[in-house]
Write a structure and sequence with these properties.
single chain, alpha/beta, 9-stranded mixed β-sheet, globular
Length: 534
Amino acid sequence: MSEIWQRNIRNYRLIIEHNLGPRVVNVVSGSLADQAYWQERLLKTRQDVFRADGETMVFSSLEKTRKGNFLGSINAWMALRRATEGTNLPPVMLMNMVFGQGKRLSPFTQALTNRKPAFPTPLCSSNGEVYLSTADAAAMSATLWLRHLDQGGFKGMVIKWGDEAVIPGKVWEDVPGQYKDVDGLRFVWQTEPTDDLAREKEWVQFNLQTHQMTYQFTRQDLAGLRKRLAASGRDHRIGVNLGSLGISYRLMEAAEQVFGEDVGDDSKWVDWDPYTWIALACRDEAQWKAEAAFEEQIGKSGIRQLEQRLPDFYTKIHRMGELFRQRHDRLPLIKVLDFGQPYWMDWGLHLSLRRSLEAMTTDTDLGATSRELFGLPHERDRNGNIIVRSEIPQGVDIRNSLVVDTTITDTRSVIHDGVVVAGRHKRLEMPDGGSVLFCAAGHMQLNGPNAIAFKWCGEATRLNEGDRKTYLYFADGPVEMRTNESLTNYEGDNYSQPVMGNPISFEEAARRMSMEDTRMVEMRWKEAWESCLR
């Protein structure tokens, strides 16, 4: 898998270098501050993320109240069309949705001024000004998808979720015209269901010969899923839904006409998955009602809750299809695009973040691909280290580690199986591994594996096994915040009340950070970071 993943990474880099990436990108967020932040941010990185000539138009749009990603994509589409009135959209464009409270990454999310997709990676921009974020890395991966769809004649947009880089585990063949009449694209991994996958993922069913989607199944136990699949016949296959999707301009126009008024109603929200797709796949209202009855049998209430918000939801989906038929003499054509077994970079959870960072010190498929993703070399020195643009004195005990853009001055420092990025340290001790990211310290100790320090700057600190530590750089002074990998529930009192010995709750930290100027927060961290080795 590593060879295919890395080949696809190199392919999308060539797309960017040769100015074949998207000409229009719409980034969608939920506040005025986020709208301004992502507009400014992507203008800084677009030459690295989309096209080397920097000729990508970035349009940042606002979702004032919760819409769900179906109504939200219509809302963003309407705003984009108003902003580009009188001009033609390119054949394919990217709509990137950068939402999410990021509770489960607390307190790192708060350190990022409540923007989880802004987490910096080891990949530096070509002008050296900034480190590309997980949102940047995710958008870069999508340039490969867009180019493939463009070559196949697709006319529409890819709607992508913010900070997940997904690299296909197969090399697609570009066939002219193969997507010319396609109005919806489901991105899937064609694989056999397991207990965990059946319970945690939605499944897209499609015709083996035509790759046309025939149905979608919600998350359920494996026995129930297999029973439903058995009724489908041998000419059907299923794949794990990968979330992001493609929608033709033709279908978006019909969706806007039917659901435009609902977009303006603050009480209404609808997601694409799973129910919009299920409704589109239903032959008639009887099948839709049968799906709702089946859900109730297995203890689910998603359709009933949806119909409380939009009682006429299925009627409108049916009307949307009929409107499309009147305009184009056919119903919308929805197909699947098989990604094979994908490489998936998800830094939105403490556990997946830690595992991804740890992997970069190894030569596993995951580790080698992660280094390729972030433009890091694979060659090691005689002690098994990958050291990039760093100053480390002779005598430091460093083995099997990845060190990027870091200065260490004390020869008593120890780093074994660790990851250090953008560090300024006098003495750094990591004998059991761990990750130290964008930190500066007189003496930092990681006692035990699985610890991560992020943007911690100060004289001395210690992290034990599984610890997480950061500083929040408020206007009235920095506040140290911590958690531990053992804390897996960030709901209820664990979010609204102080835990882990913190002076304030994660909720209070998020509230206070929402009132801060992002540029000033970054400036305070930078000053603390630079002062360490003066």
